[in-house]
């Protein structure tokens, strides 16, 4: 045997492993050609290879083997092995946080140590999955190799043991169950003893498989459409109708050949200054001091976006500045604040910091006119943007400090008050897969109007919001309600958020004696042995882990159901909407620097955070790749049935099929219209009650919550009121919290609407018949059923492919409508408070100009008077605006569905131009797309 795990014989093009015939094939450099058998490096058993296999063979089980460690990994791929290898190779080179990449990037390892070879070909995806699980068990690659634990394996054992816990769901990690699993001599899982394998406590088999499958499908889709594009270049025609048909087809195909992920995935980090957000981001991206933390103070006003640089190997910083007009407006307000009152409260301190940062200490003594013309800043281009490239993170960090740091050094010029957003792009960040953007949301309030708008806009974009807080500042129910009801209230109804994650930071800051005393813990409780080398370290470690688990339990008990109701309403079947982590960025950094540490790497939970990001990425990628594969499948099926129709001289209009499907389309549009009309009626009733409640309660609510809040010292509160008016009724304060008069006035209307979860049910992510998405899903299943496709696939290939094309056009339309629904959903939800803002706007502007003695009282009286005189018409106007926005959406959806699908039916079922006689053969591409759809469980063919 030339290499452990492989058996080499002199087979003559019989069963075995062979190199492909392509010159320079990178995959073949890692294949040990000539073997007709392979060996398990865990058990020593040998197995025969029964087919002729190369890197070009699709639907195969394969093994990755390490030359140095001799460990093996069993994988499967529905595409060609060559493409799967390319994905593994790219992952290793990009140092992504994944099992294979981690192993071959570990000490003394490299890509050169990787061997890959196919061992078996399957007939379809079902058999492929079954055979993968078989070989994982047989070769013992879970306990003695690089494989993760498939959910099926764990579930089988739990059912045998009578354990009904939902392992593998968001409530727990599948891999943790490996502590009680092993493989017996027959390759079957048992529960006899604990198996320690740190790798398997980090990654999810299901997530990893989805990511690999998406990558494979995307590669196949790109190859298929590129091949089609090349074949179409030689097609010609004479008639004008044919030329139009051909050019339209080429344009669609050209667009698909240039595919790249479009949607960015925003993760917003929300927490007070000092909570450890910057340190957390530094740890996640594995950069020591990318963002200011610790002794340096990060700015409380600048939005910082951190993402992967997919264009180059450089570190990139893009600074976006506020406009000159915005700064002059803000500066006038800052000067007025300092001139008007000497009280050193939060707002005055902010004004001093901003003026001092830009104009120095002497700027505090100057008036507005003197400051405006005081200094020019060549560092700020006329375009309002500045972009740099750097070779190292250290260079980038040093260069952008003055734009995001607020602690001023002697003689140093700072620019953070003039900065709107900083975008940092990193070339080497395993955690930040393409499209992921971490957003460090400012931790305190700001009097700037444009930054308030950015805050709301940014929250509306976030798919996930991370609430970051120090461990020793436990989240109370009062604080939780404040966060959900004020700061984050629009991320569900008026945003894209579908996950909220709570992160407790600085877990290594602990007093073991206090923990022992508070919880009455003994050495036995903490699993501390009497004879250990470093008892003090072990005690601290044990206390940290004990507190972490308790804290996560407490956080889940406090927030999980609240989060579910907040994001999903009463949706029963849901998963992935809530997570809790306890992290130590400091311990993670010490481990990376090989310094003394208390916690092990996994115990810092930073690796879990990276996996958490990957799961979010995969959930978005699956949808995007499915949409792309559906589009490609539609184009190719269109070409295929066009060629078949020409070959068989079939030029009928398929009028009967058109009539049948048109009737089903009309019925669906009627169903959609009726469902939305029912929602409209319910919304109308809710808003009617809400309008009456708002009219009745508005003076009291405005006074008690905003104008004269109870239990609050009113000294200097006039500055808050002026900031509120300056920002059109909305102000986010670092100490007071969010002060929003528009929402306070419209809150009774929102409450009545939310009592029935009307908004979340209608626009929810679930597939119930009450939601728009549920109606679309039902239509997709019923319009062209799987049974109908199967019937025509056997009896009428040309008609079958026409129906496939219609289905792909239907999927494409649903995708387009879902994006429009999301956009309009935000407009509809915010329309109530936006309408109140518009009614109050002139009064806000007038109040912002009130100065002098008794300014607070004058502002309060003016706002109260406006509310009283406008309340009857103001809330009716807000109600009508929301109802109109919803009615417009209903009309748009029904018309788009009817118009676009009718066009697709006509295109698919009408005749093909007569002189397009040389359309290319696309059978190979059709088979590729069938495999892709099969692997993604995409119901197209």
Automatic annotation (TrEMBL):
Family annotation (SUPFAM superfamilies): GIY-YIG endonuclease, P-loop containing nucleoside triphosphate hydrolases
Protein name per UniProt: GIY-YIG domain-containing protein
MF terms (GO), sorted A to Z: GTPase activity
Domain of life: Eukaryota
InterPro entries given in the database record: DUF7605, Dynamin_N, GIY-YIG_endonuc, GIY-YIG_endonuc_sf, Nuclear_GTPase_SLIP-GC, P-loop_NTPase
Coiled coil: none
Gene3D superfamilies to which the protein is assigned, alphabetical: GIY-YIG endonuclease, P-loop containing nucleotide triphosphate hydrolases
Domain GIY-YIG: 57-148
One Pfam family here: Dynamin_N
């Amino acid at each position: 045997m030339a290499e452990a795990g492989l058996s080499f014989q002199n087979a003559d093009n019989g069963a075995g492993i062979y190199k492909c015939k392509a010159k320079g094939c990178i995959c073949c450099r890692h294949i040990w050609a000539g073997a007709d058998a392979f060996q398990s490096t865990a058990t020593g058993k040998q197995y025969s290879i029964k087919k002729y296999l190369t890197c070009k063979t699709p639907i195969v089980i394969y093994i990755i083997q390490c030359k140095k460690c001799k460990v093996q990994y069993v994988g499967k791929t529905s595409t060609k092995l060559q493409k799967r290898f390319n994905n593994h190779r790219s992952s290793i080179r990009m140092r992504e946080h994944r099992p294979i990449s981690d192993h071959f990037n570990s000490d003394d390892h490299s890509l050169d140590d990787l061997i890959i070879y196919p061992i078996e070909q399957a007939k379809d995806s079902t058999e492929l999955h079954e055979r993968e699980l078989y070989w994982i068990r047989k070769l013992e690659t879970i306990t003695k190799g690089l494989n993760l634990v498939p959910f099926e394996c764990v579930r089988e054992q739990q059912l045998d043991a009578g354990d009904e816990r939902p392992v593998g769901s968001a409530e727990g990690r599948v891999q943790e169950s490996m502590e009680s699993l092993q493989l017996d001599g027959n390759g079957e899982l048992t529960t006899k003893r604990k198996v320690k394998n740190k790798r398997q406590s980090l990654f999810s088999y299901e997530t990893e498989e989805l990511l690999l499958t998406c990558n494979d499908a995307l590669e196949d889709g790109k190859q298929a459409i590129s091949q089609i594009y090349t074949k179409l270049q030689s097609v010609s025609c004479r008639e004008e109708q044919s030329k139009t048909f051909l050019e339209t087809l080429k344009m669609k195909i050209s667009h698909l050949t240039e595919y790249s992920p479009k949607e960015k995935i925003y993760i917003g980090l929300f927490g007070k200054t000092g909570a450890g957000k910057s340190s957390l981001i530094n740890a996640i991206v594995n950069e020591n001091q990318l963002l200011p933390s610790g002794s340096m103070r990060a700015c409380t006003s600048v939005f910082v976006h951190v993402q992967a640089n997919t264009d180059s190997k450089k570190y990139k910083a893009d600074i976006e500045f506020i406009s000159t007009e915005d700064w002059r407006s803000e500066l006038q307000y800052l000067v007025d604040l300092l001139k008007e009152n000497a009280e050193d409260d939060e707002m005055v301190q902010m004004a001093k910091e901003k003026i001092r940062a830009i104009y120095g200490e002497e700027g505090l003594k100057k008036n507005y006119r003197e400051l405006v013309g005081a200094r020019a800043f060549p560092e700020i281009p006329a375009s309002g943007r500045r972009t740099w490239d750097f070779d190292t993170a250290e260079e980038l960090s040093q260069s952008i400090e003055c734009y995001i740091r607020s602690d001023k050094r002697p003689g140093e010029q700072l620019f953070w008050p003039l900065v709107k957003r900083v975008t940092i792009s990193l070339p080497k960040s395993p955690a930040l897969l393409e499209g992921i953007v971490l957003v460090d949301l400012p931790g305190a309030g700001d009097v700037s109007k444009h930054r308030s708008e950015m805050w709301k806009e940014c929250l509306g974009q976030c798919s996930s919001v991370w609430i970051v807080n120090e461990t020793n500042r436990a989240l109370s129910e009062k604080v939780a309600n404040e966060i959900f009801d004020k700061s984050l209230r629009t991320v569900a109804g008026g945003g894209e958020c579908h996950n909220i994650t709570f992160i407790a930071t600085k877990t290594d800051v602990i007093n073991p004696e206090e923990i022992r005393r508070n919880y009455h813990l003994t050495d036995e409780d903490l699993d501390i042995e009497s004879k250990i080398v470093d008892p003090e370290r072990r005690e601290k470690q044990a206390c940290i882990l004990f507190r972490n688990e308790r804290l996560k339990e407490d956080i889940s008990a406090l927030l999980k159901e609240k989060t579910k109701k907040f994001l999903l309403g009463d949706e029963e079947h849901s998963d992935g909407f809530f997570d809790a982590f306890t992290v130590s960025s400091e311990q993670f950094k010490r481990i990376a620097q090989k310094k003394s540490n208390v916690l092990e790497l996994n115990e810092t939970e930073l690796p879990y955070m990276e996996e958490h990001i990957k799961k979010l990425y995969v959930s978005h990628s699956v949808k995007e790749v499915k949409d792309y594969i559906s589009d490609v499948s539609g184009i190719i099926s269109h070409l295929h049935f066009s060629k078949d129709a020409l070959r068989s001289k079939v030029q009928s209009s398929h009028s009967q099929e058109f009539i049948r499907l048109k009737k089903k389309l009309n019925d669906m549009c009627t169903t959609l219209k009726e469902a939305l009309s029912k929602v409209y009626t319910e919304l109308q009733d809710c808003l009617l009650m809400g309008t009456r409640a708002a009219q009745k309660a508005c003076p009291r609510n405005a006074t008690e919550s905003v104008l004269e809040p109870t239990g609050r010292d009113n000294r200097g509160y006039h500055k808050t009121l002026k900031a509120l008016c300056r920002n059109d009724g909305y102000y986010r304060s670092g100490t007071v919290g969010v002060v929003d008069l528009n929402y306070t006035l419209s809150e009774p209307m929102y409450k009545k609407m939310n009592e029935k979860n009307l908004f979340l049910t209608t626009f929810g992510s679930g597939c119930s018949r009450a939601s728009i998405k549920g109606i679309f899903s039902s239509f997709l299943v019923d319009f062209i059923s799987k049974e109908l496709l199967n019937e025509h696939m056997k009896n009428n290939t040309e008609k079958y492919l026409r129906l496939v094309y219609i289905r792909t056009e239907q999927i494409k339309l649903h995708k387009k409508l879902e994006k429009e629904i999301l956009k309009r959903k935000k407009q509809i939800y915010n329309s109530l408070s936006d309408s109140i803002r518009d009614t109050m706007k002139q009064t806000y502007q007038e109040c912002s100009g009130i100065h002098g003695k008794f300014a607070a009282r004058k502002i309060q009286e003016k706002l109260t008077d406006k509310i009283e005189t406008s309340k009857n018409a103001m809330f009716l106007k807000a109600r009508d605006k929301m109802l109109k926005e919803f009615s417009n959406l209903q009309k748009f959806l029904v018309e788009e569905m009817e118009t676009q699908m009718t066009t697709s039916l006509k295109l698919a079922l009408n005749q093909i131009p007569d002189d397009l006689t040389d359309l290319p053969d696309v059978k190979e591409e059709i088979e590729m797309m069938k495999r892709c759809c099969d692997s993604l469980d995409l119901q197209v063919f």
